[in-house]
Structure to design on (999 residues):
C-alpha cells in the first residue's frame, strides 16, 4: 500500500522539477559564458591570482614580515626579507621582501595570506587565467606579483 | 627535606630553599611569575615591576616584586589575587605605552617575552591613544649588534650582563622617565668579546643580531643543537637554519661547559658555511691546470697517485696532515687510512705532536668557576676562550679567587691577577725553578740539589723575588686551584724543559693532579685521541705497544708499520726529499708558511681535502671538496675531554662531501680487499668503532653522548707527575736578531674561517705589537709598516705600540694571511728571535 504511495509521490516531485526546468528554458536566457572569448563574471571578493600592491607613492607595501608564509596552510609562499637601503628604500620602514614567491600548484586560494598581512600588501585578485604548459610558470615571483596582468573578468554586482 | 621551608602561594603550600627568591620557588611549584628584568644568571634588580605579587605582612597585604624577595619561612603570598593581577596588567600596559607596534618587522617577534606575556598577562586594551615617544631606531652599537631604543623596556639585562660577566660596563642608561634610553658611553665602544650574549637575553627586540638581521623569523627556523668549533672550549650552541642556510647561532645551555654564553666569534663568524668561494666539486690537475672532475675520477687519481709513490719510494714517502678543527671521525679515518691502507706512520697536525700537551687536557672547566686560586701559564683565555675568561674574572671578582699569571706579555686578565710574572723570554724555565724553590723553601720538603736558589733563578728570569714568593705562597695554600698552561709555553724551542719546569712548581705545591693543558683548537685533544700522531696509536697507546698494534691490525685487516713516522715539522722539512706525497685534510701549510710553496710544488703527488681553495690547494694534484662541520655529522672532544656531538645542520655545498665519507670511499677504492674493515657507512658506525678502539671512549655511542656530551675519564690515560730536573738553560738572544718573537692568538684574526664572514672584517686588525721604547729606538711609530726578519724568513706588517709588551720582544698574532708568522719559525715551531726594521 505504502509502496504505491511512494511511487506516486516521487513521480510528482520529478514532474515538479521538470516543470521548473521547462519554465526556465522558456523564460530565461542561457548563462554559459564563452570564456575566454567573453570575460568571466566574478564577485568582488573572488579569490584569484595573488598580487602584491604598492602605495600611491610607488613604494611596495610588503615589508617582508613572512606572516603570510606563516599563515599559509599549504606552504605555498616563500619570503626572504632584507634591510632597506635608507637612501633608496623599497618599502616604508626598515625592511622589505627581497624574494617573494607563490607556488600556485600548492595554493588552495583560501585567502589566509590576505588576512594575515599587516599592510594589505598581498591580495587575491580577480585574474583567473592560470593554466600553463610548464610547471615552472606556476611559481610567481615578486616581479610577477607586483605586475599582475589585466584580469579577463568583470565584477558582478554584489548581492 | 629538613633544609627546606614552607611557603604559601594562593593558598597552596610549597617547599622552598631558605634564601631563595620567590620567583624561583614559585617556578619550581609550577607557578610562572612573569618577569622581564629578572634573569637567573644575573643579580636581581626589580626594575620592570612585572613580577608583582601580594605578600602578607605585618601591616596587611602589600605588593612586592617576586624577583627581589627572598622567601620567608611561613610566608604567605598571592599571585592570582585581584590586586596582584591588576598590578601586573597595569605594569604591562605602562610598559607598552611607548613600545612600538612593529612586531612584524622585528627580529624578536615570535620568540619575544614581551609578546608572549602581553598575550598571557596583558589587559587586552590600552587607555593610551597619544603618539608614542620616538627614539633612535636601527642604531648600530657595533659591527655586530643593532639597537632599537624605542623597543627597549629598560630592564637593564644588557647593562648587568656586561658588568657582572664581562666586567666591562660598556652600556648605560641615559635621560629619565619615559625618555630613558640605553646607549654606549660617550666615546665608548661596545667591544666585549661576548657582547652578543646581550642579544640572547634581551627580553624584547631592542638588541638584535646585525649579521642575521631580517634573515629569519623565529618560527621558520630549523634548530640543530650543536657546538662551536672555533676553540678548544667547545661551547654548546644551536645552529638555526632555513632553506639549508645557516641564519644565526645562539647559545645553548650546558652548565658544565659554557653555562649559557658563547663568544662573538662563535655567534657571528659563521660565514664559512655559505661562502661563495667554497669548493663545489673535485678538481684535478690536468695539463698543469686544476679542472673540475667527477668524484670517481678524482678518487681514482688519488689512488693512482699515492700508489705510484708507494711503489717507487715506499709507503714511508707518503705523509698526511690532519686538523684539530675537524671531527674525531675525520681524524680517525685519516689515521686509519694512512696506517692501515697506505702503511705509513707519517701522521700529524699543526700544533700536534710538537706541542708538549697534557693529553688529558684540563681536569674540568667547571673547576674554573669555583676555584680559589687560578694559575695561567702561557695561555691567554681573554683572546682564546672569552667565555672561560669571563668565568675566571667572575671567580676573582665574586669568588675571591687569586689569579697568578705567568705570560710573555701583559694580557687582558693581568688586571685581575694577584701576581703577574713576566719572565724574560727564553728564560721562563728559570722563573718556574724560582717558583718551585720558593714553594719547597716554605715547606719542609727535601730540596733537590739541582734546583737553584730563588734569588739566582729569579734574576736569570728577570722577575722580582717578592712576586715569586707571593705566587708560590698562594698556590701552596690553595684548596681548589685551577691550574692550566697553554701553547705559548708548550710549543717551540725549550718547550719540553719549560713544561717540566712548570710541572715541578705545581707538583711542589702539591697540586700535580690539577695541572692541565688548555687546548686552544676545537679538537686538538680529540685528534690526538684518534692517533693523529707519528708515534701514537688511537687512545694514546705507543706505536711500540705490540698488543695495541695487534688489536688494531685484526680490526683494520692490515699490518701497521712499526717505524715511527715524522712529525709535522719533520715532514715539512723533508719535503720533497723523503716525503714524496702529501695528503692534507683541512691543513694549509703554505698558508701558514708561504715559503714552503716551493717544496710542496716539487712533490710527486699532493692531495688537499678542504672547504676552500687554500694556498696549499692551489698547488695540489687533486683537490677534494669537503663539507664544513655544520654540513656533516661528527663528534669533537674539547679540552676537558668532553666528547660532544655536532649533528648535520644544513646540506652540503655543491658536490662537497663530508671528510669521513671521502676517506671511506678512498680507502675502499685503494684496498678493495679490506672492504670489511671499511664497512663504516655512517658517522655513528665510525664512532662505534672509535668507542671500541680507543679505551677512553669505551661505552660511548652517538646516542648516549646526549645533548651535553660525555667526558672521558681522566685516569684513562695515566701520567706520572714528579719533580724532575731539566736542562732548560736560558736561551740568549743573538745579536743579529735582538727581539724575541712572541706569538699568540687573537679572537679577531684574519684566518680562513673568520675571514669568510665579511661583515666582521673590520674587527680584525693586522699588526705586530711593540713596546713604545723599542719603537722609539727603531724610529717606528704607530701604524708604520715594519719588516720582521728571522733566520727562517720574513714578514711585513704594521707596528702597534703597546706598553704591555715586554721591552725586547715583539708580539705577532697568528692567522693574518698577509703576515704569516709561520715564515719566521725555525723548524716549524715558534719561540724564535727576530730583527725588526722600519719599511720606508
Amino acid at each position: 500500500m505504502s509502496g504505491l504511495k511512494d511511487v506516486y509521490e516521487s513521480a510528482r516531485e520529478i514532474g515538479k522539477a521538470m516543470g521548473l526546468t521547462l519554465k526556465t528554458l522558456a523564460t530565461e536566457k542561457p548563462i554559459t559564458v564563452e570564456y575566454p572569448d567573453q570575460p568571466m563574471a566574478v564577485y568582488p571578493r573572488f579569490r584569484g591570482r595573488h598580487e602584491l600592491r604598492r602605495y600611491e607613492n610607488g613604494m611596495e607595501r610588503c615589508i617582508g614580515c613572512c606572516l603570510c608564509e606563516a599563515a599559509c596552510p599549504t606552504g605555498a609562499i616563500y619570503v626572504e626579507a632584507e634591510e632597506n637601503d635608507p637612501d633608496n628604500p623599497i618599502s616604508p620602514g626598515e625592511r622589505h621582501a627581497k624574494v617573494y614567491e607563490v607556488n600556485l600548484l600548492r595554493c588552495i586560494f583560501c585567502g589566509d595570506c590576505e588576512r594575515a598581512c599587516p599592510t594589505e600588501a598581498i591580495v587575491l585578485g580577480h585574474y583567473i587565467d592560470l593554466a600553463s604548459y610548464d610547471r615552472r610558470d606556476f611559481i610567481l615571483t615578486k616581479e610577477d606579483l607586483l605586475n599582475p596582468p589585466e584580469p579577463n573578468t568583470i565584477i558582478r554586482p554584489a548581492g | 627535606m629538613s633544609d627546606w621551608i614552607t611557603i604559601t602561594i594562593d593558598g597552596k603550600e610549597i617547599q622552598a630553599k631558605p634564601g631563595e627568591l620567590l620567583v624561583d620557588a614559585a617556578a619550581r611549584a609550577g607557578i610562572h611569575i612573569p618577569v622581564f628584568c629578572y634573569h637567573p644568571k644575573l643579580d636581581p634588580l626589580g626594575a620592570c615591576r612585572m613580577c608583582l605579587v601580594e605578600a602578607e605582612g605585618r601591616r596587611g597585604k602589600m605588593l612586592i616584586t617576586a624577583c627581589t624577595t627572598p622567601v620567608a619561612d611561613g610566608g604567605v603570598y598571592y599571585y592570582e589575587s585581584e590586586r596582584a593581577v591588576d598590578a601586573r596588567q597595569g605594569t604591562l600596559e605602562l610598559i607598552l605605552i611607548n613600545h612600538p607596534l612593529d612586531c612584524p618587522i622585528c627580529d624578536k617577534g615570535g620568540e619575544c617575552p614581551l609578546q608572549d606575556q602581553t598575550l598571557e598577562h596583558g589587559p587586552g586594551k590600552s587607555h593610551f591613544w597619544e603618539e608614542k615617544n620616538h627614539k633612535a631606531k636601527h642604531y648600530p652599537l657595533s659591527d655586530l649588534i643593532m639597537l632599537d631604543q624605542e623597543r627597549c623596556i629598560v630592564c637593564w639585562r644588557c647593562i648587568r650582563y656586561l658588568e657582572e660577566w664581562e666586567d666591562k660596563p660598556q652600556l648605560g642608561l641615559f635621560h629619565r622617565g619615559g625618555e630613558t634610553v640605553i646607549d654606549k658611553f660617550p666615546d665608548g665602544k661596545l667591544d666585549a668579546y661576548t657582547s652578543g650574549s646581550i642579544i640572547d637575553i634581551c627580553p624584547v627586540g631592542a638588541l638584535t643580531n646585525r649579521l642575521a638581521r631580517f634573515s629569519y623569523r623565529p618560527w621558520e627556523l630549523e634548530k640543530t643543537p650543536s657546538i662551536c668549533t672555533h676553540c678548544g672550549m667547545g661551547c654548546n650552541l644551536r645552529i638555526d637554519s632555513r632553506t639549508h642556510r645557516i641564519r644565526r647561532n645562539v647559545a645553548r645551555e650546558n652548565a658544565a661547559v659554557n653555562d649559557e654564553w658563547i663568544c662573538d666569534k662563535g655567534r657571528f663568524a659563521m660565514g664559512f658555511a655559505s661562502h661563495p668561494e667554497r669548493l663545489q666539486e673535485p678538481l684535478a690537475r690536468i695539463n698543469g691546470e686544476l679542472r673540475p672532475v667527477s668524484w670517481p675520477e678524482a678518487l681514482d687519481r688519488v689512488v693512482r697517485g699515492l700508489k705510484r709513490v708507494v711503489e717507487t719510494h715506499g709507503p714511508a714517502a707518503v705523509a698526511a696532515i690532519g686538523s684539530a678543527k675537524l671531527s674525531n671521525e675525520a681524524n680517525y679515518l685519516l689515521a686509519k687510512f694512512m696506517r692501515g691502507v697506505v702503511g705509513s706512520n707519517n701522521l700529524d697536525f699543526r700544533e700536534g705532536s710538537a706541542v708538549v700537551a697534557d693529553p688529558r687536557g684540563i681536569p674540568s672547566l667547571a673547576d674554573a668557576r669555583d676555584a680559589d686560586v687560578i694559575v695561567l701559564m702561557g695561555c691567554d683565555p681573554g683572546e682564546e676562550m672569552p667565555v672561560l675568561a669571563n668565568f675566571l674574572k667572575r671567580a676573582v671578582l665574586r669568588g675571591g679567587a687569586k689569579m697568578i699569571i705567568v705570560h710573555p706579555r701583559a694580557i687582558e686578565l693581568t688586571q685581575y691577577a694577584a701576581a703577574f710574572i713576566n719572565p724574560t723570554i727564553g728564560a721562563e724555565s728559570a722563573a718556574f725553578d724560582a717558583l718551585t724553590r720558593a714553594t719547597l723553601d716554605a715547606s719542609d720538603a727535601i730540596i733537590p740539589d739541582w734546583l737553584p736558589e730563588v734569588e739566582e733563578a729569579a734574576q736569570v728570569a728577570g722577575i722580582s723575588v717578592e712576586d715569586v714568593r707571593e705566587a708560590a705562597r698562594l698556590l701552596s695554600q690553595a684548596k681548589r686551584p685551577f691550574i692550566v698552561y697553554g701553547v705559548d709555553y708548550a710549543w717551540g724551542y725549550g718547550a719540553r724543559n719549560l713544561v717540566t719546569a712548570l710541572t715541578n712548581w705545581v707538583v711542589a705545591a702539591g697540586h700535580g693532579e690539577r695541572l692541565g693543558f688548555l687546548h686552544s683548537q676545537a679538537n686538538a685533544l680529540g685528534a690526538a685521541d684518534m692517533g693523529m700522531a707519528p708515534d701514537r696509536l688511537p687512545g694514546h697507546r705507543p706505536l711500540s705497544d705490540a698488543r695495541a698494534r695487534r688489536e688494531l691490525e685484526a680490526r683494520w685487516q692490515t699490518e701497521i708499520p712499526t717505524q715511527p713516522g715524522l712529525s709535522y715539522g719533520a715532514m715539512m722539512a723533508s719535503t720533497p726529499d723523503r716525503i714524496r706525497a702529501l695528503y692534507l685534510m683541512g691543513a694549509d701549510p703554505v698558508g701558514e708558511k708561504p715559503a714552503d710553496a716551493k717544496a710542496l710544488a716539487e712533490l710527486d703527488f699532493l692531495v688537499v681535502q678542504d672547504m676552500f681553495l687554500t694556498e696549499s690547494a692551489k698547488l695540489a694534484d687533486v683537490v677534494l671538496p669537503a663539507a664544513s662541520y655544520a654540513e656533516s655529522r661528527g663528534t669533537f672532544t674539547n679540552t676537558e675531554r668532553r666528547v660532544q656531538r655536532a649533528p648535520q645542520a644544513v646540506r652540503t655545498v655543491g658536490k662537497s662531501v663530508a671528510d669521513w665519507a671521502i676517506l671511506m670511499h678512498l680507502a675502499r677504492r685503494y684496498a678493495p680487499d679490506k672492504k670489511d674493515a671499511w664497512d663504516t657507512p655512517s658517522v655513528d658506525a665510525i664512532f662505534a668503532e672509535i668507542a671500541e678502539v680507543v679505551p677512553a671512549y669505551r661505552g660511548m655511542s652517538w646516542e648516549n653522548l646526549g645533548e651535553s656530551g660525555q667526558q672521558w675519564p681522566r685516569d684513562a690515560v695515566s701520567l706520572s707527575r714528579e719533580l724532575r730536573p731539566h736542562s732548560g738553560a736560558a736561551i740568549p738572544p743573538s745579536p743579529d736578531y735582538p727581539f724575541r718573537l712572541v706569538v699568540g692568538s687573537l679572537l679577531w684574526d684574519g684566518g680562513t674561517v673568520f675571514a669568510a664572514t665579511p661583515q666582521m672584517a673590520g674587527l680584525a686588525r693586522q699588526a705586530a705589537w711593540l713596546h713604545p721604547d723599542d719603537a722609539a729606538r727603531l724610529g717606528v711609530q704607530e701604524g708604520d709598516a715594519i719588516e720582521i726578519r728571522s733566520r727562517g724568513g720574513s714578514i711585513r706588517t704594521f707596528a702597534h705600540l703597546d706598553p704591555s709588551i715586554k721591552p725586547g720582544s715583539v708580539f705577532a698574532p697568528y692567522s693574518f694571511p698577509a703576515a704569516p708568522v709561520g715564515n719566521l719559525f725555525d723548524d716549524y715551531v715558534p719561540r724564535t728571535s727576530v730583527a725588526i726594521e722600519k719599511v720606508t
Summary: The mean pLDDT of chain B is 94. Chain B has 25 helices and 36 strands. The longest helix of chain B spans residues 295-313.
